[in-house]
Amino acid sequence: MRTFTQLSITLLLFLAMSITAMDASAQQKRSGNPSPQAQATGTPASPQSQTAAAQKGPKPYKEVITDKAKTTKGLFTVHKVEDKFYFELADSIMKREFIAITRYAKTSTGAGFGGEIVNQAVLYFEKGPENKILLRTSLVVNMAADPTQPLAQAVENSNLDPIVAAFDIKALGKDSTSVVIDVTDFFKSENAVITMSNDAKTQYKLGSPQSDRVFIESIRSYPINTEVKVSKTFSINTAPSGSSTTRVGAERPLPATEAGVATFEFNISMLLLPKTPMHRRAFDARVGYFADSYTSFDENKQGSKKETFAVRWRLEPKPQDVEKMKRGELVEPKKPIVYYIDPATPKKWRKYLIQGIEDWNVAFEQAGFKNAVRAYEWPEKDSTMSLEDARYSVVRYFAADIENAYGPNVHDPRSGEIIESHIGWYNDVIKRLYKWYLIQTATIDPRAHNKEYDDELMGQLMRYVVCHEVGHTLGLRHNFAASAAMPVEKLRDKEFISKYGQSASIMDYSRFNYVAQPGDGITQLIPRISVYDKWAIEWGYKPILDAKDDKAEKLELNKWVRSHESDKMYLFGTESSPYDPRFQSEDLGDNAMKAGEYGIKNLKLILPHLIEWTKEDGEDYTDLATMYGELTAQFSRYMGHAAKNVGGVYETSKTYDMPGGQFEVVPRATQKEAVTFLTKNVFTTPAWLLDKDIMSRISHTGGLEVITPIQ
Ligand SMILES: [Zn+2]
Q1: Residue 340 pairs with which residues in a beta bridge?
Q2: What's the 473 CA to ligand 1 centre distance in angstroms?
Q3: Could you tell me the distance, in angstroms and rounded to a whole number, from the CA of residue 460 to the centre of ligand 1?
Q4: DSSP labels for 162-188?
Q5: Residue 406 Cα to ligand 1 middle (Å)
Q6: Which carries the bigger pLDDT value, residue 485 or residue 31?
Q7: What is the Å distance from ligand 1's center to 198 Cα?
Q8: Cα 62 to chain centroid, rounded
Q9: What is the pLDDT of residue 9?
């Protein structure tokens, strides 16, 4: 059914293009212009031609936007006249900033996936000299604290926004309150703001676009956005690379090399940014938000100041609910955060993805909002909606053997307001989940012994991953401190786990409960939203309705942070600390040595079953080798977690008003405990890993190559 629909669309487009091509050549004959060059580039006819000279400057509207024009109104009013696309820009849209997001709509094999962002820029149109409209890119680097101060002029004088394109005014709108420009060549051209980056082109060894195979497929306009689809075919450089091995390593020639060309379809979303930027919430290193910044110049301050602010959605109560909110009642936001599920997602998984997204509602309740996050299946019957349309946040499903997923966001660089997100979900995340769950929990959950998990188990694992990715798209960074908030023994306590889970945050990489032992009666093995997540959402999203200025808001937020400073479950720990043993990925509990001992106990129980749990008649031992590799990798992780304690330093972000310093050496006793653990488990050869049955099937050395790298 889908194939048929796609085929019809392709056919229609193909027909439409043939007609416009015919029209173009007919027009060429009429104008008597023999130069196909001039036609293709849109430059005015040769200077020798007197008629052309007379045509300089705007023409009457009707001569440009003829009766043949197909018009769509929206952010920019778009007119399609034969093979030309015109934007009619109202005076009111001049200098209004919009964000242009360029994505792959469809790509060549091996070059990313449909839906991935390839470029992003904040742009605005402006009237220029000589009947030109200028397109500038807005660089939010330096800003004046107060636009009325004389210093604001100096800031403006030294931060001129680059002009990325200039357009002739082709005609004035009906009552001269708008101008018409021809955007055909701009969207077909290669430029810095709406095309693939030079780095990407180098990586895929792409040459220049083939001018006869660059097409604007469509331009659609909606109330706050205009969407352009462009198809470009690039030549592929087949010349051998230089001898430098690093260069060869960086290049990823495409499978399409044999054809000599590669075709890409891009979608450019131009989305109007709000006239008044959202109120910024000052970044705080003690709570894990993504951030953006600019340099602020203020006459009343001695020297400029770097202003850093959190990236988050604009979540506001409806005016009539403000009083309710102040009383502590939950209210629905004026505009909820909505995600759609890509229609390419297998039907059986959709409900789990929806659950994982809506799991965040419990966190938003702590910020005073109910039903703040909503997830829906993509309304396939609504042909007015497009997956690339920047107004819609979507969990895209990619047919790729990559065992991962990602959660990016597009935000207003002036305020940190998140505008939309396209989460990327690769098909083989499922494989990764299967491997982790077996190696970490198979002694507790017999469902992990099956070669294929039942849909309910796999669905719950997927729910965990999508929930984590959505966390990123809400502005949250990884919090690697969250698992260290849990005392190791409590990870075996059924009641504790059912209340808090195994990590204080789903934004940690804490995976599944490998500490729990058979007989503990733990059934909740998968991470979920916990104390830190609720707190982080409260910090970022709870409106501060009566702060009189930014400083007052900052002090109020500081009060919130300080009210939790003695509770480890509220601690944020960056993923980039090379010193702090509390901030680690793939770990559990507040003591890596104790957690590691429990983990090893489980690995020793799992190992003798690996043949049985991976076997399949008629298949070779690939799966056994893979899972044995996973098991030894898990063992290595336990060693690594313990090793980070040796010479470790705790780093706790603090403000002046908090007691104590930020850096503290890991206690001597803990460091000694780590060394003892390593001596016992890895420097004394872990002979138990060399299972004879397994080794005789996958190793010709009996396992020497397994032990050496671990030690
Ligand atoms: Zn992540």
Answers
A1: 376, 394
A2: 10
A3: 17
A4: PEEEEEEEEEE-TTSSEEEEE-HHHHH
A5: 7
A6: 485
A7: 27
A8: 44
A9: 28
Tokens 């009457």 belong to residue: 60
Per mean pLDDT, which range of 117-131, 327-341, 511-525 is the poorest? 117-131
Indicate the pLDDT class of residue 253, thresholds 50, 70 and 90.
Answer: low
**The token pair that represents 513 in the structure block:** 């409960």
Ligand 1 center from residue 385 Cα (angstroms): 29
Say what the pLDDT of residue 257 is: 61
What's residue 247's pLDDT? 38
CB 66 within 8 A of CB 86: no
Ligand 1 center to residue 332 CA distance, Å? 28
Sequence spans of domains, the chain: 1-36, 59-272, 319-710
Task: Tell me how far the alpha carbon of residue 477 lies from the centroid of ligand 1, in angstroms.
Answer: 7
pLDDT interval class at 125 (50, 70, 90): very high
Residue type, 213: R
Gap from CA of 429 to ligand 1 centroid (Å): 13
CA dist 674 and 358 (Å) reads 40
- Between the CA of 490 and the centroid of ligand 1 the distance, in Å, is 25
**CA angle, 71 as apex, 419 and 60 as ends, to 5°?**
120
CA distance 521 to 444: 8
Token pair belonging to 704: 């020497």
- Alpha-carbon distances of 117 from 155, 192, 267, 272, 391, rounded to whole Å: 31, 14, 9, 18, 15
Strand segments, DSSP code E, in 311-462 are 337-341, 373-377, 393-398, 405-406, 410-411, 418-420, 422-426
Q: What is the mean predicted confidence (pLDDT) over 38-60?
A: 50
Local structure of 2: helix, strand or coil: helix
Q: What angle do CA 329, 330, 331 make, to 5 degrees?
A: 115
Share of the chain above pLDDT 70, in %: 88
This prediction has a pTM of 0.83
Is 12's pLDDT higher than 70? Answer: no
SS3 sequence of 296-325: EECCCCCCCEEEEEECECCCCECHHHHHHH
* Structure confidence at residue 45 as a pLDDT band (50, 70, 90): very low
- Ligand 1 centroid to 478 CA: how many Å? 6
Start-to-end CA span in the chain (Å):
56
Give per-residue pLDDT as tens, 368-421.
999 999 999 999 777 778 776 778 999 999 887 888 888 888 899 889 999 988
Distance 529 CA to ligand 1 centre (A): 14
Instruction: Output the CA 585–ligand 1 centroid distance in Å.
Output: 10
What distance in angstroms lies between residue 238's CA and the mean position of ligand 1's atoms? Answer: 37
Centre of ligand 1 to C-alpha 435, Å, is 18
**CA–CA separation, 204 and 202 (whole Å):** 5
* CA 393/CA 57 separation, integer angstroms: 42
Compute the distance from residue 572 Cα to the ligand 1 centre, in Å.
14
pLDDT in tens, 685-695: 999 999 999 99
Phi, then psi, of 460 in degrees rounded to 5: -70, -35
Expressed in angstroms and rounded, the spacing between residue 28 Cα and the centre of ligand 1 is 55
> How far is ligand 1, taken at its centre, from the CA of residue 119, in Å?
22
- What is the CA(82)–ligand 1 centre distance, in A? 47
CA of 4 to the centre of ligand 1 (A): 38
Query: Measured in angstroms, how far is the CA atom of residue 472 from the centroid of ligand 1?
Result: 7
Ligand 1 centroid to residue 340 C-alpha, Å: 20
Backbone angles phi, psi at 233, to 5 degrees: -115, 125
Q: What is the pLDDT of residues 423-481, one digit of tens each?
A: 989 889 999 999 999 999 999 999 999 999 999 999 999 999 999 999 999 999 999 99
